[in-house]
Specification:
This protein starts with 6 loop residues before the first strand and ends with a helix. The chain is globular and about 55 Å long. Helix content is 30%, strand content 24%. It has an eight-stranded mixed beta sheet. Strands 3-2-1-4-5-6 form a six-stranded parallel beta sheet, with helices on both faces. A three-stranded mixed beta sheet has the order 8-10-11, with no helix packed on it. It is built from ten helices and 17 strands. By secondary structure, it is α/β, with parallel strands linked by helices. One of its GO terms (molecular function) is nucleotide binding. It comes from Ephemerocybe angulata. This is Gfo/Idh/MocA-like oxidoreductase N-terminal domain-containing protein. Keywords: Oxidoreductase.
Length: 410
């Protein structure tokens, strides 16, 4: 791929009404520092009017760097976009159940791919995607596990790799998806109703917990065993209107657990203990995230308290989703950057990544970094980004948790 011309991107799922592509990928990719690397050449939305509105909206904030017209497509079949000769990379930013149909078309067209996590609705689907990509031989695929691109997480990895806290013996996670987020039971908004059905592969375990597992595996290595229990503490979920938050639309039966407790051994020999809950109200003193990495000589702690969003990155308060915003991180009680200075651990950011002050520690920083890294690789260099192998490693843990929880105990 030419280093002199921008890489032409076709986005499936870009809407003028918002959504993840609009709130994360557009701000990341449209930044001046990336406009010479990627350009928007095509987009696909649900209808012709939606596609036209998206083209008009993003033409000003993300002008074409090669002067070409942005081609628009609509509907559920992405064949035309994938076969557009002015598309080098197909970005799949739609809901998880619909990923594979688009990815299959992109692979058939020989296009490079970006896929939101999870790539496939099931582990088997993701493994089939990987096999198809490998069979082609010339396709590069990046998966949207953007949490591993947090500068803060990368600093923690450097500390762990330095041996400063000694051999890691254990790690403990306790997290809460607060009720007022309305992502999962006992309350959810209508635009998230698809995530309440475990058949769609977008549950609390397969999305939220999986993203945190990605960061854990990135820092500490893969699991070798898992034992889990799960429960539905809330048998029903109230569905509220996303436009009128106080309006109850309906109540549905819950078919997916809202509490998970699992433990396992890591390949390194360390042990992991992980608890996730959904539905508790955020109240003073209740942490939405406490993640501890214990080494023989020291400890790294990630914390998110109740209250306003830790970075302003999310509109619904302090989130345990470290793929969306950095938590507060301390090492042996010292703030992360202070510890780096005290211990003389040097940190130098990649000059290719430009992050505005208000974007630091947010998903815009994380997403921009992953595109910077993907761009390097597409142009023949060395880029560090989450691959299908990385995603499948996470999905294997998710699958093991589900199977272990179904078996039960006693």
């Amino acid at each position: 791929m030419s280093n002199s011309k921008p890489i032409k991107l076709g986005i499936v799922g870009l809407s003028a009404r918002g959504g993840w592509a609009a709130s994360a990928h557009v701000p990341a990719l449209s930044h001046p520092s990336l406009q010479s690397t990627f350009t928007l050449s095509a987009l696909q939305a649900s209808s012709a009017s939606s596609a036209s509105a998206a083209k008009e909206k993003y033409a000003s904030s993300w002008p074409s760097s090669d002067g070409l017209e942005v081609n628009t497509y609509h509907g559920v079949d992405a064949s035309e976009l994938c076969n557009d000769p002015n598309v080098d990379v197909v970005a799949v930013t739609i809901k998880a159940p619909d990923h594979k149909a688009v990815v299959d078309k992109a692979i058939a067209a020989g296009k490079h791919i970006f896929i939101e996590y999870p790539p496939g609705r099931t582990l088997a689907e993701s493994e089939q995607m990987r096999a198809d990509v490998m069979k082609n031989g010339n396709i590069q695929a990046m998966v949207g596990l953007q949490g591993v691109h947090s500068a803060a997480l990368r600093k923690v990895k450097k500390i762990l790799d330095s041996g400063k806290i000694g051999k890691v013996i254990s790690t403990t996670v306790v997290a809460n998806i607060a009720r007022e987020f309305r992502f999962y039971g006992p309350e959810a908004v209508d635009q998230n109703i698809y995530a309440q059905d475990r058949a769609n592969g977008a549950t609390m375990l397969s999305i939220v917990i999986a993203h945190q597992l990605s960061s854990l595996i990135h820092l500490l290595g893969p699991f070798t065993s898992i034992s889990a229990i799960a429960s539905k503490q809330y048998p029903t979920t109230k569905i509220y209107s996303s436009k009128e938050p106080k309006k109850l639309v309906r109540t549905i039966a819950s078919n997916s657990p809202d509490h998970f407790v699992f433990a396992g051994a890591l390949k390194s020999g360390a042990q992991a203990s992980i608890t996730w809950r959904s539905g508790y109200k955020s109240v003073p003193g209740r942490k939405n995230l406490l993640w501890i990495i214990d080494g023989e000589e020291g400890c790294v702690k990630f914390e998110v308290d109740d209250g306003p969003s830790q970075t302003g990155a999310t509109p619904f308060g302090a989130t345990p989703f470290i793929n969306l915003a950095d938590p507060t991180i301390t090492v042996n009680g010292q703030p992360l950057d202070e510890y780096l200075t005290t211990e003389g651990i040097e940190w130098e950011e990649d000059a290719a990544l430009v992050v505005e002050k208000h974007e630091k520690g947010t998903f815009v920083e994380f997403v921009r970094r992953e595109w910077v890294e993907f761009g390097k690789s597409l142009r023949g260099g060395q880029g560090e980004f989450a691959t299908l192998d990385d995603a499948i490693e996470v999905q294997k843990v998710v699958d093991a948790v589900e199977r272990s929880a179904q078996l039960g105990g006693l």
